[in-house]
Amino acid sequence: EAGVTQSPTHLIKTRGQQATLRCSPISGHTSVYWYQQALGLGLQFLLWYDEGEERNRGNFPPRFSGRQFPNYSSELNVNALELEDSALYLCASSFGAQYFGPGTRLLVL
Amino acid sequence: GEDVEQSLFLSVREGDSSVINCTYTDSSSTYLYWYKQEPGAGLQLLTYIFSNMDMKQDQRLTVLLNKKDKHLSLRIADTQTGDSAIYFCAATPGNTPLVFGKGTRLSVIA
Questions:
Q1: With an 8 Å Cβ cutoff, are B41 and A102 in contact?
Q2: Which of A5, A26, A43 to mutate to test the interface with B (most CBs of B within 10 A)?
Q3: Distance (Å, rounded) from C-alpha A90 to C-alpha B41?
Q4: CA triplet B11, B12, B18: central angle to 5 degrees?
């Protein structure tokens, strides 16, 4: 069974640009979570989608947004990128326990 | 809200047992997880335990839960160099976002 997949694996942007990160959950999983792992800040919850709806968001500004598609895949958008947005962005899918993808490493220059 | 604490570093000799400890604050946390992260990689789910269990064993891994003290531990038997990684403890009351500890960096000395 395929695991959670994320694309791209690496993304380099400059300040002010927008970034789009994608996640495909494990087949049958309807919940998708996004987490940010920034250096020195640990793993922080960003967004949770379930059945196409945003269920909860962490303590992040509105320029972090996303959506979940009818096939349960998800997209995370980060607008007006700032240097401190450089991090590993992890997606997890769940039908009970949360299983993580390999992450997208975003570098903002 | 939930707060999860872990010690930051642990160093063991190859072949010894490793014990990584974690404490959490929210007694409504019913799902407790251990994840492993190798350099440059995502999180690998190692095991999880429900709050109505005291212990769970899976091959070399043993999880102990003391619900009264809100203390969780992960024991790795016969630790190998391939076990060197960062181990995260996480808690959640249910199908909700995880709250993670800061991770314990396990170094295995050959």
A1: yes
A2: A43
A3: 10
A4: 105
The whole-angstrom separation of Cα A77 and Cα A68 is 12
Within 8 A of B45 by CB-CB distance, chain A residues are: 97-100
Q: Are B65 and B75 in contact (CB under 8 A)?
A: no
Whether A94 and B103 lie within 8 Å, measured CB to CB: no
Write out chain A's pLDDT in tens, 109 residues: 689 999 999 999 999 999 999 999 999 999 999 999 998 888 999 999 999 999 999 999 999 999 999 999 999 999 999 999 999 999 999 888 899 999 999 999 9
Copy the structure tokens of residue B9. 């570093």
Residues B64 and A28: their CA atoms lie apart, in Å, by 30
Q: What are the structure tokens assigned to A44, written together? A: 């922080």
- Gap from B38 CA to chain A (nearest CA, Å): 11
First to last CA, chain B: 40
Q: Which residues contact A84 (CB under 8 A, 6 or more apart)?
A: A38, A108
Backbone angles phi, psi at A83, to 5 degrees: -55, -35
CA distance A13 to chain B (A): 19
